[in-house]
Design brief:
Elements: E1 5-9, H1 13-25, E2 29-33, H2 36-45, E3 50-54, H3 62-71, E4 79-84, H4 89-97, E5 102-105, H5 110-120
Parallel strand pairs: 1-2, 1-3, 3-4, 4-5
Length: about 130
């Protein structure tokens, strides 16, 4: 089996570059998209093992995308880690209610991100 894949949906380039680096350093294949419509296209082309999904994206919100993932049979096994700079409990609860497996509030410690990713992907890399 190949390495696990992560699709990163983040529209801010600086944040995306840092997250891509961290995720790749953990040994996961990583793709990045910066727009809600492009997320849907990327999910159609190659469903990832994990979707790291910003709530605020151009064209479609992370909430819309999470709902779509949970309603699509062939995407039902995709894990969803949502993140937002809007740190309210309401946002976290909404994301989890819509089917996110985990939720992080920006800014977050890199150790928290990598721990969440490992936990969602089973903690082991398929080498």
């Amino acid at each position: 089996m190949g390495r696990k894949s992560v699709l990163l949906a983040e529209d801010e380039d600086g944040i995306a570059l840092a997250l891509e680096y961290l995720i790749a350093r953990e040994g996961y294949d990583t793709r990045r998209v910066a727009d809600g419509d492009l997320v849907l296209k990327a999910l159609e082309e190659a469903p990832p093992d994990l979707m790291v999904l910003d709530v605020m994206l151009p064209n479609r919100s992370g909430y819309e995308i999470c709902q779509m993932i949970r309603r699509t049979e062939r995407l039902k096994d995709v894990k969803v880690l949502m993140m937002t700079a809007r740190g309210g409990e309401v946002e976290r609860r909404k994301g989890l209610a819509l089917g996110a497996d985990a939720f992080l509030t920006k800014p977050f410690a890199t150790a928290d991100l990598t721990a969440q990713i490992r936990a969602l992907l089973g903690g082991e890399l398929d080498a």
